[in-house]
Amino acid sequence: MNNPFATTPPANTSSVEAYQASLITELRSQKCEIDAQIHEYSLADNAADLGLRVAQLEPYFNYLENGLEKLDTTVDRFVQWRSKRAEYLRFLQWSHNAARPAKLPDPLDTIFVAMVFVLLEGGMTSMMMISEGKMDVMAGIGYGLIFAAVNVIVGIVGGFFCLRYVNYKLGAPNPEPKDKRTRLIARVGYIIVLSVLAILVFAAARVRSLGSHEHIFSFDEIGFISTFNDGIAVIIIVIGTVSSILAIWKGYSGLSDPVPGLSNARRHAETLINEDGMMALDALADSMSETVEDALESAEEDLKLARKAISTRTKALIHLTDIVKRHNMSIEDALGRLRVFAHQHSSMIHRVKRSAVPEDVFLDETPFNTLNISPDILSSDEGEASLAEANKLQSVMAELLNALGEALAKIELARTEFLASAPDLDVVSDK
Questions:
Q1: What's the pLDDT tens digit per position in 377-392?
Q2: DSSP string spanning 45-77?
Q3: Interacting residues of 56 by C-beta distance below 8 A, sequence separation 6+
Q4: How many CB atoms lie within 10 A of CB 109?
């Protein structure tokens, strides 16, 4: 702000009153500009209502407490479910007279082994088929792979659906009439599977002996006994028999526990219930984190805007305070210049009138005093209150974030304790 009183009085100023009027006019104009700036400052929006935001964050503490109450209920519920499933597993072990832990074989491993069986048996059988020119290469490979695939598949199916039920609940403490019927059906089915496999292996040997799949059960050209005179045909029978036995065994124990239902019961009492429990705890933790973090993110945005507004208003307050200070100083400067001008004017009159004593000039300073602007009008209390609210909001946000961390830590502890408290299913009950 330029000082309008830094120069000497204008040449056309003919009296003290006229000079005083010009000074007051300039000061009044300057004061109007400052008043307008102060009014604009007072109307400016200070910041977001941080007190309301603090009040909005308070319920989230109760939300976390309620979530932890749900945590205890959730863990207790899954512990009870796991206990009941473990009891059911032990009941199955007892009812099947299975004095050993339930097994959990990996079906994927069995499938991989079955594919290896098919390739090995198919490869060796194909080589036997095409040796000594008995069969074309492509036909030999085709027959070898088909025989191997059917042999392995029938063996696995027979082992899984028949052999596992051959001794179903045999010697169990609680036999039922349907158990004997189940064993009978399984044994008949197992005999059928063995018959099919025997016929299949014999058919493969006959195809090798005849060099074709036609009339393999016609013994006019090559008799039944003559089939076994071909050493390579015998090797094919041996390979097929070994492959059949291995396939039956993998079907019996490689897809599930040999006792029907034990693997599924153990999986439900161990793997699945633990996974369900972890999913429930993860869902609770994710829900807490997402809800509280969204609230904190929104509060953080308000806090940033508020601090920016506080900084802007603080700078504006400092600027206005400086303007008011310089304005009040300019009033004092104007009064000083007016006094000097009045003294010079009195001396000039004294010289003109040649009077003995210069006339005293009375200066009315009241108009100047009314142009003063009190610094108190620019109080910093509002800014200090806003800063206090911002600090309080930041403190509540930190407390809420800490409460969230403690809640998540308790959930993690509950997860660890839940897994650690799992019953040892490798210990068979004497029930």
A1: 766 556 677 778 888 8
A2: -----HHHHHHHHHHHHHHHHHHHHHHHHHHHH
A3: 295, 299
A4: 12
